[in-house]
Write a structure and sequence with these properties.
Strand content: 5-15%
CATH superfamily of the largest domain: Citrate Synthase, domain 1
Keywords: Acyltransferase, Transferase, Tricarboxylic acid cycle
Family: Belongs to the citrate synthase family.
Number of domains: 3
Number of helices: 18
Structural class: mainly alpha
Protein name: Citrate synthase
Distance between the termini: 61 Å
Bound molecules: s-citryldethia Coenzyme A
CATH architecture of the largest domain: Orthogonal Bundle
Largest sheet: 3 strands, antiparallel
Pathway: Carbohydrate metabolism; tricarboxylic acid cycle; isocitrate from oxaloacetate: step 1/2
Order of helices and strands: EEEHEEEHHHHHHHHHHHHHHHHH
Oligomer: single chain
Radius of gyration: 24 Å
CATH class of the largest domain: Mainly Alpha
Catalytic activity: oxaloacetate + acetyl-CoA + H2O = citrate + CoA + H(+)
CATH topology of the largest domain: Citrate Synthase, domain 1
Number of strands: 6
Helix content: 40-55%
Length: 425
């Protein structure tokens, strides 16, 4: 078994090394503080493994992404979002019978409790749907409490997968003053969501097959991404024993930030700002490079991918296919393409290995499908839900799981006596 030697002051400690199935190596520091009194320091945890997991593998240098060993490219070509949900949560591709039963369970749990519709009445039309989504998911705990019975826990996973799209669509309908459209059991998961989003009671609505396929692929591409910010949040909250809905609600909140899942909305807002500024994308490239300017090129850069995000490549191919098939041209797409081309040739981005990430082009596709901008991150959450559930389940079932409780290095005042108020300056 490989080990690592650490020389501290006049002692040398030998630490075990953990090797993963893909050859990744970690120094096991679980006994470091007990043996040396030292802790490690790694803000943002960029160099720290929080767990061992069998769900998703990423090779950031090579631009590789696999769910349970299956390459994202194969899953996009051959699988479906519902099948990928099953794969992530249960670890294996389902048999036909298993898939049909899983799909049937999702279909028959997609209704919300009628009383939950009242919750939407309290939100202003301007409410961001991510805030509504996080609150509604947390509220599911009040209808479906946690249980030590594994069958109830699994049923709650099914309920959450089935109801999240209904909550998302209802929050959109409420925000535009249209009546809720109920789930339909004769539609696929993805078609049902689009139908709930865009149908109205006064006339039939046929979900465009192209949009059903495109959204299904987008949901697959978003389904999991190992220990990103929101998934780590789900694991951290769940590590205290908090129930599934509370843990996922926290993950939704973490995802809403513009540096994370909120980036897909921020990219479109950035492209619109450039368009309003006469299409002057070079100006924004310079702003992104200026250390004194907080502006960042949204949809660019990644903590793990120091090469192209494989998901961005696949989304870009989808953009070309959809725009050709629909015969549309979107000025924002042209700006995005020019921005990408200029950035990829610019020393600042090359030196820092900044490439387009999943969020750079996804908004362009959502826009082509008529999805409103403030719903983009909700669709990211819908895609990421099976990954969050799978990671929460793995954390719960892992005997090595401990409550997350990091340490710190204290830099505040050392001990000082209390000063009575009439003696203060
Ligand atoms: C997602 O982790 C995941 O897996 C996330 C995700 C998932 O599927 O869950 O992939 C989804 O969140 C994708 C990322 C979406 N966010 C954005 O597109 C926002 C813009 N990108 C950045 O804010 C940034 O690239 C991050 C947040 C994505 C990564 O930040 P890091 O790893 O902390 O990198 P950093 O801030 O340390 O940057 C390193 C350098 C810095 O320059 P210097 O201080 O060395 O001079 O690169 C610069 C940064 O200023 N930089 C950028 C930049 N991203 C990094 N400069 C301009 N524009 C950018 N977008």
């Amino acid at each position: 078994m490989p080990t690592a030697k650490l020389i501290l002051d006049d002692t040398t400690v030998e630490l075990p090394v953990i090797v993963g199935t893909e050859g990744e190596r970690a120094i096991d520091i679980r006994k470091l503080r007990a043996q040396t009194g030292y802790i490690t320091y790694d803000p943002g945890l960029a160099n720290t493994g929080s767990c061992q997991s069998s769900i998703t593998f990423i090779d950031g240098e090579a631009g590789v992404l696999r769910y349970r060993g299956y390459a994202i490219e194969d899953l996009v070509e051959h699988s479906s979002f519902v099948e990928v949900c099953y794969l992530l949560i249960y670890g294996e591709l389902p048999t036909r019978a298993q898939l049909e039963q899983f799909q049937d369970r999702l279909t028959h749990h997609s209704l919300l409790h009628e009383d939950m519709k009242k919750f939407f009445e309290g939100y202003p039309p301007s409410a961001h749907p991510m805030s509504v989504l996080s609150a509604m998911v947390a509220s599911l705990s009040t209808y479906y409490p946690d249980s030590t019975d594994p069958e109830i826990t699994e049923l709650n996973m099914i309920r959450l997968l089935a109801k999240l799209k209904t909550i998302a669509a209802f929050s959109y309908k409420k925000s535009i003053g249209q009546p809720y459209i109920y789930p339909r059991n004769d539609l696929s998961y993805t078609a049902d969501f689009l139908h709930m989003m865009f149908a109205v009671p006064s006339e039939p609505y046929e979900v465009p097959p192209l949009f059903e396929k495109v959204l299904d692929v987008l949901l697959i591409l978003h389904a999991d991404h190992e220990q990103n910010c929101s998934t780590s949040t789900v694991r951290m909250v769940g590590s205290s024993g908090a129930d599934l809905f509370a843990s996922i609600s926290a993950g939704i909140s973490a995802l809403s930030g513009p540096l994370h899942g909120g980036a897909n909305q921020a990219v479109i807002q950035m492209l619109e700002a450039i368009r309003e500024d006469g299409g002057n994308y070079q100006k924004y490239l310079e702003k992104a490079k200026d250390p004194n300017d907080p502006f960042r090129l949204m949809g660019f850069g990644h903590r793990v991918y120091k090469n192209f995000d494989p998901r961005a490549r696949l989304i870009k191919k989808l953009v070309d296919q959809v725009f050709n098939e629909m015969g549309i041209n979107d000025p924002l797409l042209e700006i995005a393409q020019k921005l990408e081309e200029a950035a990829l040739k610019d020393e600042y981005f090359i030196e820092r290995k900044l490439y387009p990430n999943i969020d750079f082009y996804s908004g362009i596709l959502y826009r082509a499908m008529g999805i409103p901008t403030n719903m983009y991150t909700v669709l990211f959450a819908m895609g990421r839900l099976p990954g969050w559930i799978a990671q929460w389940k793995e954390m719960r079932e892992d005997p090595h799981t401990r409550i997350y409780r990091p340490r710190q290095i204290y830099q505040g005042s050392t001990h000082r006596p209390y000063v009575p108020i009439d003696q203060r300056g």
